[in-house]
């Protein structure tokens, strides 16, 4: 018969003597990420390979330190990479609605902006001075005087020709008029029509000849005026170039290594020459408010500004950006608007970068849940990665809505590595449902929730504690407290041979222990403070557990912890409340009768049982067929139920419990009610491991303690779950005092022997079982039921 576990197997104690130092104050700070070698190798590969599509999905459970590990890894990696370029947007003088993007070496974006600002300010001072100089006035007058003389000569000649032909020339709003002169007097039109026909014909002939000559002369005058205007324009350009030429040359020399900048400066210079009047003074608008006057004065110069969207000045290596709120505009960038005198306006100076811009040339970290929750963000990110550029656009345009006309900034080439942080489930969903995902995120970095519990990793665990207390200025942990936290790591891992990598939970425990140490006025955190923090954490969340235990103690929930009963056994289940899980015992009963229905799962019939639980019940049916129905059909109608269970039931961890209840009902042998059972079973009768073994055992222990420990109580667990035991010290002490026992079972036969005190019995070569054994009694009862069923069938036929 199976013997109870040794006390040492109830909990894997970490001896304080194994801790190298007396406290965390004597330890070295942790300089590495522990327990995630596989994930770090994947990260290193994904972040260093340059081919497109090798972005990284970091998968892991909450609290495993994914974000901290990724950020720490990236910070170290980025330091060895070159600094990313600065990016600026400038006015496009060919098309103002499509601003140009210019890349500059790191740190030179802001300097270029300031130098352009100084250049325009100096131009606004230098140009008025140049055009107000005596030299300019003299050259302009000389140019205009020579042309004015030619114009005057032409006009004088045409007046002479007009007089000789008998006409005078008058200016009018519609041009030059030729008025005939008769008898020394100009003849108006109303008098002209009254002249004799022959006189009028003669006058008209002479007028036509004069008009022909006049038109020719006017063309010459216009040409002279055009030459004059051109000469003045050329003079103005020469003066302006002289005034700003040195500034332009100096600025272009500063940025000769960036070809786009000299080309832009040339465009600025040409625009200045085309718009000199703006630099020479804008006439004020009579009656306009002062703020409008200031707006009009400065408006022509706004196009010469430089909008720095990415500034990597002061950066050490490549940028690492962690976007906490990855909305579409926070990711892609946006174009802001402003209201000027009641009108919405925008221009290139209101382009704002997104995290893709800031991380360009480096690394971007995103939480995949936040990314998928934000409308358009996932599609925007994929578009940027697929096209290799980031294009700022209005969200409405991307959705196909009709929007007001706005600017369309030039797209910026994208050189980036994106790391998504999420759960393994989201990775699987994206991989299966989104064809782009597998092409864009080809590297998966899996963060494990546990690591091996050995002396090396235990030492690193202690180093982690040292880091935490130093960074957050907490009290140091003494040797016993360190050992207790290491044991807590195994409890979180639910494995004596593992340590949890859920460092967020470990850190919270230390913070809470520090609180209790501070309250006690202790200089260091001791084992008692850690234990108290664990207990208080449970107490804050175990109200429902206490209520259930109270109902059991008062007899509202019927649970027996003494005596023996047929067809009834205490099963163990786990109830999860989000932040807290606890074990609850439930009475499992079985009833049998002659029939063909087989085993009926009442939980399933009541729509309370899940598919895995139903599978467990079907496996029980397979076990019965394999052991008792090789030469005859089962003539059984059985009912299995969790008594007083009003919530859904899922999982197969109670399948062995249900089978024990059924075997008891068939054999007539009573089961010990002071022993609870957990474990799944296969069709061969092997008891298999289950989850939550610690919570289940602790839950039953609390019920036994509440109803009174009698020295007989305990539980049956799968032998394969012994390695998962990290029970409370209270249970260990109770076991040491002989008040609680745990039986590790490998098969149903071993378990039924413990529960009944009767040998299970082996099958003989002829297919029968040894007399007086459990299996013999079950087999005999099933044969009797089969005979009864055969006897009933003829009667039913009549």
Automatic annotation (TrEMBL):
It is found in: Endomembrane system. PROSITE patterns: LON_PROTEOLYTIC. It is a multi-pass membrane protein. Residues 200-227 form a coiled coil. GO terms for biological process: proteolysis. The keyword Cytoplasm does not apply. The active site is at 653, 696. It holds the Pfam family LonB_AAA-LID. The keyword S-adenosyl-L-methionine does not apply. GO terms for molecular function: ATP-dependent peptidase activity; serine-type endopeptidase activity. GO terms for cellular component: endomembrane system. Belongs to the peptidase S16 family. This is AAA family ATPase.
């Amino acid at each position: 018969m199976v013997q109870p576990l040794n006390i040492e197997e109830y909990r894997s104690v970490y001896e304080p003597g194994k801790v190298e130092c007396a406290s965390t104050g004597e330890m070295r700070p942790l300089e590495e990420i522990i327990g995630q070698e596989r994930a770090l190798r994947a990260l290193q590969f994904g972040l260093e390979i340059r081919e497109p599509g090798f972005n990284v999905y970091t998968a892991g459970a909450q609290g495993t330190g994914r974000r901290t590990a990724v950020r720490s890894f990236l910070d170290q990696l980025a330091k060895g990479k070159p600094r990313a370029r600065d990016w600026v947007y400038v006015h496009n003088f060919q098309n103002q609605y499509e601003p140009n993007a210019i890349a500059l070496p790191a740190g030179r974006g802001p300097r270029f902006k300031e130098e352009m600002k100084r250049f325009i300010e100096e131009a606004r001072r230098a140009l008025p001075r140049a055009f107000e100089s005596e030299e300019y006035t003299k050259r302009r007058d000389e140019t205009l005087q020579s042309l004015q003389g030619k114009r005057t000569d032409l006009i004088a000649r045409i007046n002479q020709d007009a007089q000789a032909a008998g006409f005078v020339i008058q200016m009018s709003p519609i041009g030059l008029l030729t008025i005939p002169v008769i008898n020394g007097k100009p003849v108006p039109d109303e008098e002209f029509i009254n002249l004799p026909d022959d006189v009028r014909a003669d006058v008209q002939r002479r007028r036509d000849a004069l008009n022909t000559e006049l038109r020719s002369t006017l063309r010459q005058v216009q040409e002279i005026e055009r030459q004059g205007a051109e000469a003045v324009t050329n003079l103005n350009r020469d003066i302006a170039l002289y005034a700003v030429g040195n500034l332009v040359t100096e600025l272009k020399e500063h940025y000769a290594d960036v070809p786009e900048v000299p080309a832009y400066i040339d465009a600025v210079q040409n625009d200045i020459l085309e718009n000199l009047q703006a630099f020479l003074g804008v006439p004020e608008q009579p009656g306009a408010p002062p703020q409008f006057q200031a707006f009009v004065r400065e408006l022509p110069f706004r196009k010469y500004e430089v909008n720095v969207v990415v500034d990597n000045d002061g950066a050490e290596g490549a940028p690492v950006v962690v976007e906490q709120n990855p909305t579409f505009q926070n990711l892609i960038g946006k174009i802001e608007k402003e209201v000027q005198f009641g009108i919405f306006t925008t221009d290139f100076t209101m382009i704002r970068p997104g995290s893709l811009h800031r991380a360009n040339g480096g690394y971007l970290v995103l939480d995949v849940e936040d990314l998928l929750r934000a409308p358009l963000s996932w599609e925007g990110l994929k578009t940027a990665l697929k096209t290799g550029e980031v294009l700022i656009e209005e969200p409405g345009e991307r959705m196909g809505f009709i929007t007001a006309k706005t600017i369309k900034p030039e797209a910026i080439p994208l050189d980036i590595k994106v790391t998504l942080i999420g759960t393994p489930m989201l990775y699987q969903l994206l991989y299966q449902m989104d064809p782009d995902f597998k092409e864009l995120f080809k590297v998966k970095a899996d963060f494990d929730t546990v690591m091996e519990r050995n002396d090396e990793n235990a030492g690193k665990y202690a180093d982690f504690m040292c880091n935490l207390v130093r960074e957050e200025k907490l009290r140091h942990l003494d040797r016993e407290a360190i050992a207790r936290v290491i044991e807590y790591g195994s409890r979180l891992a639910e494995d004596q041979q593992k340590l949890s990598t859920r460092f967020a939970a470990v850190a919270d425990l230390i913070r809470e222990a520090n609180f209790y140490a501070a309250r006690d006025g202790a200089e260091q955190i001791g084992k008692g403070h850690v234990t108290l923090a664990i207990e208080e954490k449970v107490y804050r969340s175990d109200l429902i557990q206490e209520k259930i235990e109270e109902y059991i103690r008062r007899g509202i929930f019927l649970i027996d912890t003494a005596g023996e009963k047929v067809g009834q056994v205490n099963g163990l289940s786990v109830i999860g409340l989000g932040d807290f899980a606890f074990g609850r015992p439930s009475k499992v009963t079985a009833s049998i009768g002659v029939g063909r229905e087989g085993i009926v799962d009442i939980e399933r019939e009541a729509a309370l049982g899940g598919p895995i639980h139903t599978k467990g019940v079907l496996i029980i049916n397979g076990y019965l067929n394999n052991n008792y129905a090789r030469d005859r059909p089962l003539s059984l109608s059985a009912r299995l139920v969790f008594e007083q269970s009003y919530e859904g039931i899922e999982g197969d961890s109670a399948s062995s419990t249900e089978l024990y209840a059924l075997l008891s009902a068939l054999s007539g042998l009573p089961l010990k009610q002071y022993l609870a059972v957990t474990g799944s079973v296969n069709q061969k009768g092997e008891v298999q491991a289950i989850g939550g073994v610690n919570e289940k055992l602790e839950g039953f222990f609390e019920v036994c303690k509440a109803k009174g420990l009698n020295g007989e109580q305990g539980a049956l667990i799968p032998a394969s779950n012994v390695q998962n035991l990290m029970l409370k010290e209270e249970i260990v002490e109770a076991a040491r005092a002989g008040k609680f026992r745990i039986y590790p079972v490998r098969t149903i036969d071993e378990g039924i022997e413990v529960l009944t005190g009767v040998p299970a019995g082996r099958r003989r070569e002829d297919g029968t079982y040894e007399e007086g054994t459990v299996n013999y009694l079950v087999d005999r009862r099933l044969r009797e039921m089969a005979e009864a069923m055969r006897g009933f069938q003829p009667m039913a036929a009549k």
